[in-house]
Amino acid sequence: MSQTTEHNSKAWDKKVEDGVRYTQSETPETIEKARCGKWSIGVTADRQVPRDWFPESIKGIKILCLASGGGQQGPVLAAAGADVTVFDLSEKQLQQDVEVAHREGLDLKTVKGDMTDLSAFADETFDLIVHPVANVFIENVRPVWKEAARVLKDKGTLISGFMNPVLYLFNAEKEDEGKLEVAHKIPYSALEEEEVREGETLEFGHTLEDQLQGQTDAGFVIAGIYEDDFGGGRTIDHHIKTMLATRAVKLKV
């Protein structure tokens, strides 16, 4: 792992200890509904992924939940019958998945690692990848798309959430006060703009070209897209959607 990944791994472990929103596991009620075929997951903050972005049945299909620890997407998909592997940089986030799997009697695998390096998996291993907003924590996003394409089967699907880089234009402290003050450039790097603080994640605002063209350059065709925000919880939500999700299909050339 890079120094940035190591730093963010420890920061996410701390987020688990602090019980922040994105580390809170799904409830037994949600898992029971998934067993009965009534399930949904999110890859952004507020909206759920359209059900028709998935196969009619996911029973038996091989799914990689990429940078998706926390006991959320993985256990739901496993309860719905999928063969799920959860891959994440945080040991404690992965432990959340292990605990839900143990509690609910689910068959689910976990692997710790950096999302830019999926060498733990052979070529064309998975039918589907679910990748929630997470590439904001790495410096270069294009290797993620290349590795995702490598480990997906032909015509496999990548469902990913990511930030609109416009979010990183503004001073975060001023936004908390209800003011949008342009303070940064895009692409954004916390390494250039801020002091590195232990326990706080380092974030990176990637260009839309790297997010979208990066997928097509890796061999994907984008077949669906929607926008999302923080559910009205931030000042910028009243002006623009700051998250996107894409459904991309791998096509061999």
Automatic annotation (TrEMBL):
Domain Methyltransferase type residues, every copy:
64-159
Query: What's in the keyword line of the UniProt record?
Result: Methyltransferase, Transferase
The domain of life is Bacteria
Q: Which GO terms describe its biological process?
A: methylation
Q: Which Pfam families match?
A: Methyltransf_11 (PF08241)
- Show the InterPro entries listed in the entry: Methyltransf_11 (IPR013216), SAM-dependent_MTases_sf (IPR029063)
Key word Methyltransferase present in the record?
yes
Q: Which SUPFAM superfamilies match?
A: S-adenosyl-L-methionine-dependent methyltransferases
Q: Name one GO molecular function term.
A: S-adenosylmethionine-dependent methyltransferase activity
Which protein are we looking at? Methyltransferase domain-containing protein
